[in-house]
Amino acid sequence: MFNIAKAARPTDIQIEDIRLSYQDYAYRVPIKFGGNVVDRVTLLNVDCVVRTVNGHTAKGFGSMPMGNVWSFPSHTMSYDTTLGAMKALAERIAKISAGCKQAGHPIDLNVLLEPEYLRAAAEVGQRLKLDEPIPKLCTLVTASPIDAAIHDAFGKVHGVNCYHTYGPEFMSHDLSHYLTPEFKGEFPSRYVTREPKPRMPLYHLVGAVDPIFASDIKHRVNDGLPQTLPEWIRYNGLTHMKIKLDGDDLAWDIDRVLSVDRAATETEKQRGVSTWFYSLDFNEKCPNVEYLIDFLRRVKEKTPQGFERIQYVEQPTARDLKSHRQNVMHAAAKLKPVVIDESLTDFENLQLAREMGYTGVALKACKTQSQEMLMASAGQKYKMFLCVQDLTCPGASLIQSASLAAHVPTVAAIEANARQYVPAANRGWEKRFPGIFHVTDGSMDTSELNGVGLGAV
Fold first, then answer.
1. pTM for the whole thing?
2. Residue 2: pLDDT band by 50, 70, 90 thresholds?
3. How far apart are CA 162 and CA 188, in angstroms?
């Protein structure tokens, strides 16, 4: 079943053991995206042990929100049903991974094991009699903390940060082995830096039900944290705002951007700030590309300066690109970079997205560290716009996500919204990484993201 088809090298590892645990948190305020309102999260935490060919062992750790509403959306199955399916799949993936007796680099092991994970997802769906099959995106999210723990352990067993392990001194195959012949002789180390950027701006989320002005507040949380957008801007010194939009109500979407721009303009001028940015996320809800083009043109008419502040548009239409080939983005991408997110589950879909006119790639730690090293390399090779997106990642998962952003040269900012919705899950991390979890000038101190392994523990 398992075969990497090469002789093991001394740095290669074999997976010895994998243990899973879960943490549940309630959100302080709900978040709305893609037509769904979410008020809780379950973290999947993974501890693993690896052994090198030479007999050295190390422990690794990975963590990720399970994100079932985003990765396994359903109109017929409940939150608990899809979450339960992910937990059942996590147990299977852990068993499959621990049962792999091949030795290799973490990326090799992930490429080897992913087909087994997908088969397990199909079997779990059938066994649980789910209304719909478990999607590949959901399988990646479920596997991601296990893959992260393996990368973490690999770095630790060699005493280096993971971003020092993506070159020929640790990898037996170049990128052409995983992608296409045009990558011959190239390794991920060409496309990621050994050391992180020293500082990066923080992207703040404006959810679809988040209050922009005080008059929008229906219930004050009164927990010491901000609620309105101007309060958050002052609290964190924000200069980057991501705006969640509905995609099925053009007037509402336009008004939402205008309201955010009005609040930001007034607040930033009071602060003496002249430059700030927006990103727009429709979470694939636009019915077609014409909706997006009409939206962008109308926003530009109503607020030319606000339009100029838009850095990029994220996944405007349906995630199944093969079934919606008519939704080409060539015309829209002439207005702003259009980024693939939910659709990006493998290199094949990246190539298809390029054919359809997408000009950007959203990297996401929840799609596995292994895959993101390949997608970061391909995105830069093809000169695409790159960003790193959040999954409301707290704690160790935020460290992994922020480190991904800080080590990919062309990524300009870090998304981090757990501080808004589930700050309880960050407790205990603030003292260890104050530059990441305490933001006052709109940016994170990412210089500290250079510890051994993934650097979280």
1. 0.97
2. very low
3. 12
Note down the domain range covering 362.
189-448
Both tokens assigned to 236: 């964190």
Angle at 363 between CA 279 and CA 95, to 5 degrees: 140
**Count of domains for the chain:** 2
Q: Where are the alpha helices (H) located in 183-314, listed in sequence order?
A: 229-236, 250-271, 289-302, 304-308
Note the pLDDT of residue 34: 81
- H or E element, residue 52: strand 36-52
At 209-245, the pLDDT tens digits run: 999 999 999 999 999 999 999 999 999 999 999 999 9
Predicted confidence band at 179 (pLDDT cuts at 50, 70, 90)?
Answer: very high
Helix 136-158 to helix 79-98 angle, to the nearest 10 degrees?
A: 40
Give yes or no for a contact between 96 and 117, defined as CB atoms under 8 angstroms apart: yes
What does the pLDDT read at residue 1?
Answer: 42
Residue at a domain's end among 148, 180, 212: 180
CA distance 342 to 319: 6
376 φ/ψ angles, rounded to the nearest 5 degrees: -65, -40
Instruction: Give domain status of residue 242, yes or no.
Output: yes
